[in-house]
Structures are given as C-alpha cells and as structure tokens.
Amino acid sequence: xxxxxxxxxxxxxxxxxxxxxxxxxxxxxxxxxxxxxxxxxxxxxxxxxxxxxxxxxxxxxxxxxxxxxxxxxxxxxxxxxxxxxxxxxxxxxxxxxxxxxxxxxxxxxxxxxxxxxxxxxxxxxxxxxxxxxxxxxxxxxxxxxxxxxxxxxxxxxxxxxxxxxxxxxxxxxxxxxxxxxxxxxxxxxxxxxxxxxxxxxxxxxxxxxxxxxxxxxxxxxxxxxxxxxxxxxxxxxxxxxxxxxxxxxxxxxxxxxxxxxxxxxxxxxxxxxxxxxxxxxxxxxxxxxxxxxxxxxxxxxxxxxxxxxxxxxxxxxxxxxxxxxxxxxxxxxxxxxxxxxxxxxxxxxxxxxxxxxxxxxxxxxxxxxxxxxxxxxxxxxxxxxxxxxxxxxxxxxxxxxxxxxxxxxxxxxxxxxxxxxxxxxxxxxxxxxxxxxxxxxx
Length: 442
Hints:
The protein is mostly helical. It is built from 15 helices and three strands. A three-stranded antiparallel β-sheet has the order 1-2-3. Mean pLDDT is about 85; it is low at about 440.
C-alpha cells in the first residue's frame, strides 16, 4: 500500500466529515452562519479533490471520446453547482427582487471564478514554475537575463485551445448587449465547445495517452472491478456532498457578508469560487513539482476554455427550466461591467501566451492588475477610500487598461497570432474534410 496516496485520499475524505456528520444528524440548522460556511465550504473543497481524482481515474476504462466530453463537464462541476443554484433561483423568482439578485449573483460567481483562474491560477502557477527549486533543470522554463525575464513555455498543441478561447472571449463582449445571457449565447458557446471537442477527438489517434500521477495513477493500478468500484464510490460520495453542501455554503456566504458589512455579490464572486478552484490549482502545483510544468499549465488553459464556454452557455438553460419556458437570464449594469472586465482580462492573458510563453514579469503584471481591481473595489465597499468613479465606471476603466495592453501586445506579436490562427484553421479544415493528416504537421 502507498501510505502517501492513502493519506491524500483520507485527508480529502476527512474534510467532508464535519458536514456529512451534521447533515446526517440533522444538526445543520443549529450551526452558526460562520460554522455553516466553514464546514460546508471545506466539504466542497474535499469533494472537489475526490471528484477530480475519480474523473482522472475513469479515463482508463471509458472511451476517450466519452472521457473528453464528460470529464470536461466534471472539471467545472463544483463551480457550476453554485452558479446553477443562483440561475435556478433567478428563474423561480423571476421579476421579483429576489430573482433579480439571484441573476446578478449567478453572473458574479461566474465572472469571479474565471478571473481567479487567470489572475491567481495562470499568474501564480507560472511564477511557481519559474522560481521553484529545480526550475533550472526544467525544460519548460526558459532562462533569460533581466528582471523576471525567465519564462514558462507551453506546448504548441495548446494553440487550438488558445484560438477557441479567443473566439469565446470576443463573443463574451457581446453578451451584455443582448440584455442578459440568452439562448443565442447558449447555442454559440456550447456549440463552440462541442466543435472543439470534435476536433480534439479527430486527432485522438495522434495524441499520446496522458500519464497520471498521484492518486489517479495509484487507483488505475487496481484490477478493473476494484478500479471501477472506486471511481463510482468517489463520484457518488463527492456528488452527494456537493449537492447537499452547495446551497447552505452559498446562502451562508450571503448572510455572513451582511453580518460583516460586505455585499453578497462580493462574497459570492470572490470567496465561493476559491473552494471549487483550489483543488485544480493544487493538482497543477503537484504536476509542476513533478517536472510536468507544461502539462500543468496546459490544463489551466483548457480549464479556462471549459468555464468560458460551458459555464456561461448553460446558465440560460438552468434559468429557462426554472422559469418554465425559454428565457434570458437578466443582470444589472454592474454585472455588465463584470462580464466586460472578465472578457478583457481573458483577451489580455491570451495576448501574453500567443507566443506560447509566459514570462515572470508578464505573470506579475497579470496578477497585479487582477488583485488591484479587487482590492480597490473592496476598499470602496468598506469606505476606506473615495474615488471620483462609480463601481461600474471602475470596472470599465480596468476593462480599458486590459484592452489597450492586450491590443498592443497582439499587434507586437501579430506574426505569432497569424501563425496560431493559420494552424488552427488548417486543423479545422482537415477535420471537416475528414483528412487523416496529423494536426501537428507543418
């Protein structure tokens, strides 16, 4: 037995036990708001680890087509649970103040998760990769002279994800003009992701099977019946925990925000996504520490594509089901600004990696822009500072900064952009024509 692996599994399971115990015993209603948020949030965190490990283990026994399509959805399941909760409430109470607030919170959580993934995830993992012990011998790290000039490199195969993410980003700028997230957004974004999946599957014979590490690698070594049983157990247990914990966690955050004088949307936008995003970031850190830096960073880019298409695209579906007919998930002016700044951050981040590199100074810039906006807005909420701008105007100002910087970098790297778009166009053309030529051929 591998004690280290079993210890990791036990730790993740133990994180869920306080919530499971209180839920089964029926004592959850007697908990204080803070304790409810703590135990349910930690339970979602532990379940996210278990769900991720189960999904990766399952790749050994399911067809690759099924694995890519379904596991991509599982990757955003914990985050989606919170968003789906508010989209459902928005549909159930449509037109009422409660329904309007729920729609705003759905957008706030979605935009917060996406910005955290880039502002903390991409930037933090890049800096960790560059400055960790042993980075000098990591082939994914390019050493250069100059302040924060070292860079982490990406595989050129990730170019497909970059182009599709750029298309989704450009579409996101249009979403607020439709008065909300509607059926057209659902059709376009979900179709975009389906097209991406089909292209990936077209080249599956040319793709090497991913080598897993840690818990998934250990579970995949089991005999097939025990391996399948372990996957089903992880899925069932984590699914039940997430389903039961997500509502008290989200609503508890709202109440906790009111108690400490912080608006609900701020708590749902920045605190709630941390529980669902943390496991993925920790898994990537493990990959980087095992000298699989490129694979780890590529996983973050793919995750962003999942969230920026599936997560947004399906919100209108949940809203419409709760509403009883096809509808558009509404949101207020501030959430329009949230969507624009999220799209602009994505645009800027893509300009940084269009040449398949992210330097230390670029990662710092990505982080500083992200955290400065969050801190300034929090300072405004708490009355610490005063500026001659509304919160909406502040979002527009940061949006402008992201767009100007991203546009300038894209112009400077126009050849890299043209090359990556050209390669992706060739891949799409070959897929449509059923050409068997490998996508990586020049």
